[in-house]
What we know:
By secondary structure, this protein is mainly alpha-helical. It has one domain (2-100, 152-267). It has 14 helices and no strands. The chain has helices at residues 2-27, 33-47, 52-57, 61-84, 90-98, 100-112, 118-134, 141-149, 154-176, 182-206, 218-242, 248-255, 258-270, 276-294. The protein is globular, with a radius of gyration of 19 Å.
Amino acid sequence: MKKYSAEGVLLFITVIWGATFVIIKTALQDISPMLFVTIRFLLASLILFPFLKKIIKETDRTALAGGLILGLFYFLGFSTQTAGLQYTSATKSAFITGSFVIFIPFCQVIIEKKIPGKGSIIGILLVITGLLFLSSKGESLLQVFYELGSNFNFGDFLTLLCAVFYAAYIVYLDSISKKHAYLPLVFIQITLTGILGAGALFIFSAAGIENIKFNFNGHILFTFLYTSILATVIASTLQTKFQKYTTPSKAGIIISFEPIFSSLFAFIILHETISFFGFIGCILIFTGLLASELLKTPNEQ
């Protein structure tokens, strides 16, 4: 039962993250990317300060080291994704970000010395195909291949890096969360992300890479509250606590539902429509989840 409860929790987290795509994309009109990352995660860290005594009590040297590594992957993933949103389209960003499931098997071999089972591999292939269909805004997949393959820009490159870093994060979280209490890992990774964001903001601003922009308004306030409380503190705590009860490949497949929820929120908030190929993509992603469960091998959890 723990396994299915954990996977339900991961799906709930994915719904929360699905809304952030639309919310952050709009907020970046009023705030520069690295400043947003810095404030979001430092605010999330402050929210956890009432639990500091418990966190310190449960933190040893290995938990600190593990949390710092998680925080590094966390920072690299969120910062590259947020910066990439400024330069690439929603269609390409959704597909490239979702491609992190491709990298999970490779990260498992490198980090955990494990080879994913056939159910996970088949599920990942179905999910990637589904993401490709979901990315289609037109009537032909040739248009999608053309859009993804042509005009590959800096934002696409940053988003691809995000996919690699997040795959590594998911796999390493699977390994480290089984050995330590979840609250110290959450606090350390969130705090380090905020600190690294502040450092990167200073360097990028001094080097002229990022011009600091901050136009405070109601939407910015809502964005900080939503992303700091729901999408960071609550989502990271739940993921760190429950992901260990399933496999990294299955977790990746569940989280790859994010583009589906992003499309749903884009339809509700921005009145964007989904194409016929998009509906097929949703079905393929769901089929990938079923395949990973029904075709799992005995060595998989």
